[in-house]
Amino acid sequence: MCGIVGYIGRRDVAPLLLEGLQRLEYRGYDSAGVVISGKSGDLRTVKAKGRVRELESRIPKRFAGTTGIAHTRWATHGAPSDENAHPHLDTAGTVAVVHNGIIDNASELRAKLTADGVVFASETDTEVLAHLIGRSDAETLEKRVSEALRAVEGTYGIAVMHKEFPDRIVVARNGSPVVLGIGEKEMFVASDVAALVTHTRQVVTLGDGEMATLKADDFRTYTTEGSLTTATPTTVEWEAESYDMGGHDTYMHKEIVEQVEAVDRVLRGRIDDRFATVHLGGLNLDPGEARRVRRIKILGCGTSYHAGQIGAQLIEELARIPADAEPASEFRYRNPVVDPDTLYVAVSQSGETYDVLAAVQELKRKGARVLGIVNVVGSAIAREADGGTYVHAGPEVCVVSTKCFTNTVVAFALLALHLGRIRDLSVADGKRIIEGLRRLPGQIDEILKTEPEIKQLAKQYADARSMLFIGRVRGYPVAREASLKLKEVSYIHAEAYPASELKHGPLALIEPAMPTVAIVPDDDLLEKNRAALEEIKARSGRILAVAHQPQEKADHTIVVPKNEDELDPILMGIPLQLFAYHTALALGRDIDKPRNLAKSVTVE
Ligand code: M6R
Question: pTM of the full predicted structure?
Answer without folding.
Answer: 0.86
